[in-house]
Amino acid sequence: MTPESLRGGENENEIDQSTDLNLLHLPVTDGSLELAKHFGKHTNLEDVEREAELIHWSHEHPLILFDVRKDDDIKDGIILCDGCVLPVSFPFYHCGQCDYFLHLNCVRLRRELEFPIYHEHPLQLSQHSKFYETYWCNACRVYNNGFFYTCKACGFFLDVKCAFLPTSIAHQSHKHPLVQIKGSEHLCKACNYTFSTNGYGCEVCKFNLAHSCALLPNTITHRWDNHPLTLSYPPFSEHPNEFHCEMCEEEINPNYWIYHCNDCDQSFDLECIRDIYSNIKYEGTLKVNRHPHPLKFVQKARKRSSYYSCGDSSDSTRPIFECGGCNYTLCLNCITPNI
């Protein structure tokens, strides 16, 4: 079975050739890289004056500019920006005392944003005071510990990547361009989830996608399968009408999107496979009262149900604090009273 066999027929999913090539085309092959490129382009801040050193509202220490044309001594590996939680690329600012990183674009983000398609009030740029504090983005429905735009009176949060997504996109699942939706409730064609304002739609075809589904990557890797899983949408050809999710073992409705492994013929529904903690930067340690060693901020691997030091149990992939040498763990609810 070929990877294309679960992508639907050409008539249903082939993008109209008249679609503007300048649109953001989704799903992206490399989600982090492509969204970072678009984020930088849309904020249009590459031509601003680059100060060699600055004090930023988000950090207590001076930040130093690193530019690819003169600096090449940054450590290897993927470094995440503390603003947008995307991989850092030159130019960027860095605090040597704290390993705090900011893209040039994130340094210059506007402090107030008018975005009526998401919220009726002006949104203020902010961040939590603790590196491990997270928020739930009302657009992409994913937890984040980077910068956010918020209306505190309404408890509304929008991560900075979602705040600067375009008003129109092209998506492989539909042949017409999709525009941002504002108004009454809509039913997502990908997951059957009812959403109100944060999505994209085609008025001609009554085809709507929740924001979180429109941003799903083309392929993902997951510990339940040794191969990349491909995002696939109906109508499914050359395959039975019945799918069962390998994680929850429930039957999957063939009218909605799935992630599928063509090598193993395994399928996963979106709710089970979606990583709601994917926008969190896992770095930093804390000293706590109950344990002699520093605890590291990490993502818990969902291998089996386990008990935290407080007695609660969880089998999720939520963030935790742990001591690798002692197998001592604290959930986020227990951190504050133990610092």
TrEMBL record:
It holds the Pfam family C1_2. Keywords: Repeat. InterPro entries: C1-like_sf, DC1, Vacuole_Formation_Reg. It comes from the Eukaryota. Residues 58-107, 118-163, 224-273, 289-335 form the DC1 domain. SUPFAM superfamilies: Cysteine-rich domain (SSF57889). PANTHER family: CYSTEINE/HISTIDINE-RICH C1 DOMAIN FAMILY PROTEIN, PHORBOL-ESTER_DAG-TYPE DOMAIN-CONTAINING PROTEIN. This is DC1 domain-containing protein. It comes from Ilex paraguariensis.
